[in-house]
Amino acid sequence: MTTSTELYRLLAWFSPSYPIGAFSYSHGVEYAVETGRVTNVTTLTQWIAHILRHGAGWVDAVLLKEAYAAGDDMARLDELADLAAAWRGTTEMALESTQQGGSYLSVTRAAWGQSSTLDAFAALRDDKPVPLCVAVGVAAGAHKLGVETVLAAYLHAFAANLVSAAVRLIPLGQTDGQRTLSNLMPVVGSIVPCALACALEDCGTASPMVDLTSMMHETQYTRLFRS
Predict the structure, then answer these.
(1) d(CA 90, CA 119)
(2) How many domains does the chain divide into?
(3) Whole-model pTM?
(4) Inside any domain, residue 23
(5) Would 5 be classed as within a structural domain?
(6) Matching PANTHER family, A to Z (predicted)?
(7) pLDDT band at 2 (very low <50, low <70, confident <90, very high)
(8) Which of 14, 94, 121, 170 is most buried, judged by most C-beta within 10 A?
């Protein structure tokens, strides 16, 4: 059972106001909108659901769980961070993950109390990229939050950021944005237990069109987002 204190911490960590720059990224949605692949609630729901089930959302969920389980095993966390950093198909998606991860680690250490595990992990990755999913897993474990609830919050935040981008890009009304998030609730609910049960060696992605939109976004003539 999640306590009110734990819930407060999670709501803060995954709030749009948490200063990690998530609003700057669209994970390829910007190009998908420009080319007509994403145009309304239905296509947006399908696009994000695929990312959550078969793309970066799925991989991040498994890696977050593994980082949580690693505790203060720095060798294991170093390995997971390297793997997560390499598990992005494009330069922009890699930047999306590692820029947010570095900011998340820095802000959480500064604002949410001392943690020897977080400090050791920060020192370990001082000159190396810090993927967001691994940073969240380390922080959640250090603060003894329930991993199942953390996974649901992480995936919701992932989806909500893409919905927010689409609301501005399509453009989509705020009500339709919320309809999309409502449609994605059972998707997130089905992914969490699967991620908890998935061994790392069985994890993989199958989202080539998402990677392609990210590649094309790198040279898109007009851009509002960094990915």
Answers:
(1) 29
(2) 1
(3) 0.97
(4) no
(5) no
(6) UREASE ACCESSORY PROTEIN F
(7) confident
(8) 121
Residue at token pair 């911490």: 9
Query: How many whole angstroms separate alpha carbon 108 and alpha carbon 56?
Result: 23
Residue 44 falls within a domain, yes or no?
yes
Which is nearest to 28 in space by CA: 18, 19, 38, 20? Answer: 38
Q: Determine whether 211 is exposed, middle or buried from the number of CB atoms within 10 Å of its CB (0-12, 13-18, 19+).
A: middle
- Rounded CA-CA distance 151/171 in Å is 29
Domain that holds residue 153: 32-218
Listed residue (51, 63, 62, 58) closest to 134, CA to CA? 63
Report yes or no: 80 and 141 within 8 Å, Cβ to Cβ: no
The amino acid that residue 186 corresponds to is: P
The answer to the question of residue 66 being in a domain is yes
Q: Which two tokens stand for residue 220?
A: 């898109």
Read off φ and ψ for residue 88, nearest 5 degrees: -120, 135
On whether the CB atoms of residues 165 and 181 are closer than 8 A, the answer is no
Q: What CATH number corresponds to the domain at position 135?
A: 1.10.4190.10
CA atoms within a 13 Å half-sphere pointing along the CA-CB vector of 73: 12
Structure tokens belonging to residue 105: 């680690």
**Tens digit of pLDDT for each residue in 74-109?**
999 999 999 999 999 999 999 999 999 999 999 999
